[in-house]
Amino acid sequence: MKKSLGAKTLAYPTPVWVVGSYDAAGKANAMTAAWAGICCSAPPCLAVSIRKERHSYAAIMARRAFTVSIAGQSQVAQADYMGMVSGAVADKFAVAGLTPVRSELVDAPYVAEFPVAIECRLVQTLDLGGHTQFVGEIVDVKAEESVLGADGHVDLSLLQPLIYAPGASLYYGVGPVVAKGFNVGRAYMD
């Protein structure tokens, strides 16, 4: 029997995305966000939700762009740090020993050392209450060759991305392949 846990943000798992932007002074900033995901396939879009009081909020609103950098498990401390301190009081890139790279396609930086970077042009915002959801059209995805599989796609076993368990505030890694999508369910099709 299932036990009620109440109305909480306990959807499992959530991504560990590092959202890059430039602030009003032009300083590169990044923040870790877990309230995020793909939200459209045509055009390709993702959404990330950020509180209005966060330093990144005003930067994304002003520049109409952001990036998402995806860290590997070996970079968990840096990804965690990026979500603990405000870019208004610290140069998070410098403190974490990371390098901001200016996107050539959108007005936002991504993290050079993280294996995947997604560059987004802001297309819509939605005020949800405590958070504003930023919908970004994906204009490019960049990945280190070291995390690409033979098919040219990102191989999760090579990327070793982090996932986050809200409530418990724990980072996890991704496990082994369980089944092929849009295939294993064919057993139920007539």
UniProtKB/TrEMBL annotation:
Its cofactor is FMN. This is NADH-FMN oxidoreductase RutF, flavin reductase (DIM6/NTAB) family. Residues 10-153 form the Flavin reductase like domain. Keywords: Flavoprotein. Belongs to the flavoredoxin family. GO terms for molecular function: FMN binding; oxidoreductase activity, acting on the CH-NH group of donors, NAD or NADP as acceptor. It comes from Humidesulfovibrio mexicanus.
